[in-house]
Write a structure and sequence with these properties.
This protein is an alpha+beta fold and 476 residues long. 30% of the residues lie in helices and 27% in strands. It has 10 helices and 17 strands. The protein has helices spanning 2-42, 51-55, 73-77, 137-147, 153-159, 173-178, 183-190, 245-248, 364-367, 423-473; strands at residues 61-70, 84-103, 108-119, 131-135, 168-172, 180-181, 200-201, 214-218, 230-233, 268-272, 277-289, 292-298, 329-331, 341-344, 370-373, 380-393, 408-420. Strands 1, 2, 3, 8, 9, 10, 11, 12, 13, 14, 15, 16 and 17 form a 13-stranded antiparallel β-sheet that branches. Strand 11 (277-289) and strand 12 (292-298) form a beta hairpin. It starts with a helix and ends with a helix.
């Protein structure tokens, strides 16, 4: 009996040690195998699991619009500060479809990203035929171009007689977004002036059921750390609209996904063709969404700061740093055919106090852009991209109605482009990624725990063997 206990305890201890060592080895192996599998599955290719969603995202994407309705137009013409009523949201469902997909030999893929917008009345406060009072952007743009001598001598003389239109007009939400025929632009277009290529004007004119250029991105097949990062846009590796090479760089992705197992201490960059620049996001905190732990990246306060507050933004002062706008504003006229368009965050969030109008109520929770990503796969689970379109309104020598105006950055609309993964997609993620990862975390510890338990049992058996041996060795 004594010998049996000894043999049993030694065998149990040996098996326990094997399980402990095996668990430690398994832990090291799993730490390498799982990331390798994830990285392999995240490569953009026709055979990858993500391909269909990459071509045509299944989660609903929405573009919510709020318009700024001017309530004291007559007083503004006499020099008062404009007052507004915020109306919205007016919601459009956005459909995306990658087309003309071409696989390149250098580990990149090129495509056009076609976007279609359909108005959703059920998620809106009213019809997109609702009207509001806003600035006459074609008039202000023409006056600005004439003042800057951007239209040529003959056109300037002829158009100077047609700048007596009202500086504030009533438009529908649909008109301001997708376009309406403007009398002044019709005349300019008739003259063949290249600065105005159409008789119509709209903030998103020609952007419904169209694409915003040819993107060439890395598939991750050669370097997973470059997954979905833009190599070229319209054949270019950098823009030519800003005053420095750094500002003209095309950095980052389209925001849909980033390389897996990314370093959260590094900023994320999202290229926006509408803003003609790459926008930076920085890690803020961990968040939980439907039981999934995510990392949140936000647009920092200095994203639109002027060069004094954030020197790297000096390149966005056009044509040079002597023409920097106050913090919180981006002069987007360089990519809006000279129109005095200024971008900001909604309600002038993080802008210089001199810019913020009495009607504005900037709120970080409501007006900040954010991106919630899965730290394992890099997939964006939830995102809200928010910005505001403004017009630089000031006195123009050739537009009589501006003679008494205060110089202001006049808000026209702000929008929230947002999406989040639906329950079906989340469940697929949980079964394909989250559950296996959780299992691989606990299995090695379970094996180690079982090994420790065997060693404890072996120790108990050994103690019993010693006690029994001592008892048997005593004289009767």
């Amino acid at each position: 009996m004594s010998r049996w206990l000894l043999v049993c305890s030694l065998l149990t201890a040996a098996f326990g040690l094997i399980f402990v060592v095996g668990g430690l080895v398994l832990m090291q192996v799993m730490d390498k195998i799982i990331p390798a599998i994830v990285k392999q599955e995240m490569v953009i290719s026709k055979s990858s699991k993500i391909y269909s969603d990459w071509v045509s995202p299944s989660p609903a994407i929405y573009m919510q619009i709020w318009v700024w309705d001017l309530t004291n137009a007559d007083d503004v013409l006499q020099g008062d500060v404009p007052n507004f009523v915020e109306k919205g949201p007016y919601t459009y469902r956005e459909y995306r479809q990658k087309e003309n997909i071409k696989w390149n030999s250098n580990g990149t893929v090129s495509y056009k990203n076609k976007k279609k917008y359909v108005f959703d009345r059920s998620l809106s406060v009213g019809s997109d035929e609702d009207t509001f009072t806003t600035a006459n952007i074609p008039l202000i743009s023409t006056g600005t171009m004439l003042q800057n001598s951007a239209l040529g001598g003959f056109a300037s003389i002829l158009l100077g007689q047609h700048l007596s239109a009202d500086i504030f007009i009533t438009l529908s939400v649909k008109d301001i977004l997708w376009g309406y025929e403007d009398p002044l632009f019709t005349l300019i277009h008739t003259l063949g002036v290249s600065a105005v290529p159409s008789a119509e004007f709209g903030l998103f004119q020609d952007r419904n059921n169209t694409d915003d250029g040819v993107y060439t991105v890395f598939t991750g097949s050669r370097d997973i750390n470059k997954l979905n990062k833009i190599d070229r846009w319209n054949g270019q590796r950098k823009l030519s609209v800003w005053s420095t090479d750094e500002a003209n760089m095309i950095n980052g992705t389209d925001g849909s996904m980033n390389p897996p197992y990314g370093d959260i201490s590094e900023p994320l960059y999202l290229f926006s063709a509408d803003a003609c620049r790459s926008l930076m996001s920085v890690y803020e905190k961990d968040v939980s969404y439907q039981g999934i732990e995510l990392v949140r990246f936000i647009s920092p306060e200095y994203v639109f700061a002027n060069a004094t507050e954030y020197p790297p933004n000096a390149g966005f002062c056009t044509p040079n740093t002597d023409h920097c706008l106050p913090s919180g504003l981006l002069n987007a006229s360089v990519c809006q055919q000279g129109a005095p368009v200024v971008m900001s965050l909604p309600h002038f969030l993080y802008a210089d106090e001199s810019v913020i109008l009495p009607s504005m109520s900037p709120d970080k929770e409501k007006h900040e852009s954010y991106l919630d990503a899965d730290p394992i796969t890099g997939i964006t689970m939830r995102v809200a991209q928010r910005f505001q379109i403004n017009i630089h309104l000031k006195k123009l020598s050739n537009v009589g109605q501006t003679s008494n105006l205060q110089e202001v950055f006049f808000p026209v609309i702000w929008l929230n482009q947002n999406t989040q993964l639906d329950n079906s997609t989340l469940n697929e993620y949980k079964s394909a990624v989250q559950t296996p990862v959780e299992i691989t975390k606990y299995v090695p510890w379970a094996v180690i725990g079982f090994g420790v338990l065997l060693i404890v049992i072996a120790s108990v058996l050994c103690i019993r063997h010693c006690c029994q041996t001592n008892r048997d060795s005593k004289p009767v």
